[in-house]
Amino acid sequence: MTRSDSHNMTRRQVLQGLGATLTFPAIVPSSVFGANAPSNRVALGVIGSGGKGTNGMRNFMAAGAQIVAICDVNKLNRDQAAEIAGVPESARYVDFRDLLARSDIDAVLIATPDHWHILLSIAAIKAGKDVYCEKPLSNTITEGRALAKTVQRYSAVFQHGTQLRSMNATRLACELVRNGYIGKLEKVVIGSPPGRATGNHPEEPVPEWFDYDRWLGPAPQAPYSRWRCLRVPEIEGLAGWYFVSDYSLAGWVAGYGVHDIDIAHWGMNTEHTGPVSIEGKGVFPTEGLYDTVLTYDLKFTYANGVEILMTDTTKNRHGVQFFGSEGWVGTRGDWIEAKPESLLAIKLRPDEEHLYASKNHEANFLECVKTRAQTITPIEVAHRSTSVCLIGGIALKLDRKLAWDPTTERFVNDAQANSMLSYTMRSPWTL
Length: 431
Hints:
By secondary structure, the chain is α/β, with parallel strands linked by helices. The chain has 14 helices and 17 strands. It has a nine-stranded mixed beta sheet. It has a six-stranded parallel beta sheet with strand order 3-2-1-4-5-6, sandwiched between helices. The protein has a two-stranded antiparallel sheet with strand order 8-9. Strand 2 (66-71), helix 3 and strand 3 (92-93) form a beta-alpha-beta unit. The longest helix is centred in the last third of the chain and has 20 residues, at 379-398. The chain starts with a helix and ends in a 13-residue tail after the last helix.
């Protein structure tokens, strides 16, 4: 029995014990029994309740989770999410450690800026919680590997927020590739959204409802600006930190591109490895607050010779296309296309390779918390797909071809590139 089994069973045994000593009415509401009975619902804490966090929280509520606590350094977001979930004032936190100290929480949703993902995930697992962490997993290879080791050591259930895996079209496309229906796989072409640029913005007073120092956490000290920390209508309502390397080291290549790399790896059957060489060109802002790549061309070459050609969507359509010797198949979310079109009518035989089927990403995580089964996007898969984006970001910054050893997770004979696999966190935060 793992630590979480023990925790969950104890909570349920208490409820069952009460049932043995109390006199129940003759008519018992149906909600007391079944998958959504209080004793069977996963108690979830939410850390990071901005747009992505609140949407994820709603999905978890729809899937049957019980939201018992909310943590956010932004009081406006925290209170709004708490009102939606019916979380009382006493269960709303600024410091994540107060939430993690609660013994009634089974798992947490982590939907903070990227630079907090690993520290929070590790802390949650050490506190006995299972973790659903939004993408991308990490900002560095070193961070991602540290979390992978922690998940393994504590037998935690982990799910990465690359939810396109839980869509039928994605799975079908990858099954067609892995079962050889497009012939020998030759290349994968990805189109992912480009980055954003902005001007220089003056320092602003920190709002009274925002704990800016906690928001910065392990990131360097910097002047406050809404363009740095909040969702900005001027950039389509995206959060500004996505495009500042202190918080999102590879920018939108990882922030969004990890979805597409994850699908590519699933179809290529390379979920536990990585490329052996990376090369690319990128255009970066020459001034202003945002400093991550705007437009880019990347080529990742794998040991078997298959290439991933990843660009922004000014050059290739949004999505993932697998090209083989006898046809191609493309997917993005809930759509799928193929040539020949007859590929889409194929029904796999029982003896062919059937991939993990999940109809709902959040529901898959909740079920695995209860059963201790592996999720559809477990830690090693999350780490490897994120790693590809991160080393791609390094190649773009260095503007030269790099050789990569996916076994040691180091660049080959390149001290400068290897120095970019980790960074020093602001005191007192460390791995």
